Automatic annotation (TrEMBL):
<comment type="similarity">
    <text>Belongs to the dienelactone hydrolase family.</text>
</comment>
<dbReference type="GO" id="GO:0005829">
    <property type="term" value="C:cytosol"/>
</dbReference>
<dbReference type="InterPro" id="IPR042946">
    <property type="entry name" value="CMBL"/>
</dbReference>
<protein>
    <recommendedName>
        <fullName>Carboxymethylenebutenolidase homolog</fullName>
    </recommendedName>
</protein>
<dbReference type="InterPro" id="IPR029058">
    <property type="entry name" value="AB_hydrolase_fold"/>
</dbReference>
<dbReference type="GO" id="GO:0016787">
    <property type="term" value="F:hydrolase activity"/>
</dbReference>
<dbReference type="Pfam" id="PF01738">
    <property type="entry name" value="DLH"/>
</dbReference>
<dbReference type="InterPro" id="IPR002925">
    <property type="entry name" value="Dienelactn_hydro"/>
</dbReference>
<feature type="domain" description="Dienelactone hydrolase">
    <location>
        <begin position="28"/>
        <end position="241"/>
    </location>
</feature>
Length: 243
């Protein structure tokens, strides 16, 4: 039985003027931000249930691009409606059936091809939040083209196959995330220790709820700000270590 699995207060978000632009890649729209200099390093950002247009996710794309990566957030919902704060949680399980974070392989391949052929990317990482964190976990088990991954508060539940990661992966969680129990994080840690042959890291940030790491500076609460900034720095450091 799923509780409100991704319920977090998306609240009143301040406006955000994006630095990047939108592109069409085959059947997918995507938001892209590039650094001001040439680089052959790229990062794919996978959005949460609120989709690729959500200001918070575009802020993250711009933030990563500012560290010197071609950064892209494709619409993994392929033009279908994202979850809206006005939708009813009773319908969530049904919505998830049509938006499966473990069925993102085709779109990931399209985006990887674009980054390699159109942007000259040689090393490509992936970062995902919530729904996108689950997608990252899945892709890091399936796609060797992704050099490193960061999965933020997304966990693949109840699957024996979720531990044999192909490339270095960092799992970020909030201590007060009501969607992911501490037992699940402990299990992940135990099993990775047992099965994982590549570098991995798990970190839990004190007092943080689901969705904490996407907030723009002006939307952060003062008590949470140090943890949000630390999680972001850890995310970037992990990417820089491998890409």
């Amino acid at each position: 039985q799923m509780a409100d699995p991704f319920l977090y207060n998306s609240g009143e978000r301040s406006h955000y003027g994006c630095l990047g632009h939108e592109v069409q890649i085959e059947h997918i729209k995507a938001y892209v931000c590039r650094p001001s200099f040439f680089t052959d390093k790229a990062v794919i950002v996978i959005h949460d249930i609120f989709g690729w247009l959500f200001p918070d996710i575009r802020y993250i794309v711009d933030l990563i691009a500012g560290h010197g990566y071609i950064t892209i957030c494709p619409d993994f919902f392929k033009g279908t409606d994202p979850w809206k704060t006005t939708d009813h949680w009773a319908d969530f399980a049904d919505w998830m059936k049509h938006h499966d974070p473990m069925k993102v392989d085709k779109e990931a391949d399209v985006v990887l091809k674009y980054l390699k052929e159109q942007c000259g990317a040689k090393k490509i990482g992936v970062v995902g939040f919530s729904w996108g964190g689950m997608a990252v976990h899945h892709l890091m088990l399936k796609n060797p083209q992704l050099t490193a991954g960061v999965s933020l508060y997304g966990i693949i539940r109840d699957s024996e196959e979720r531990y044999n990661l192909l490339n270095p992966t960092f799992f970020i969680f909030g201590e007060k995330d009501h969607t992911i129990s501490f037992d699940q994080i402990t299990l992940l840690e135990e099993k990775l220790k047992q099965y994982c042959k590549v570098a991995y890291k798990i970190k839990v940030y004190p007092g943080q709820v689901h969705g904490f790491a996407q907030l723009k500076p002006e939307d952060m609460k003062p008590d949470d700000k140090p943890y949000i900034e630390e999680a972001r720095k850890d995310m970037i450091d992990w990417i820089k270590m491998f890409i």
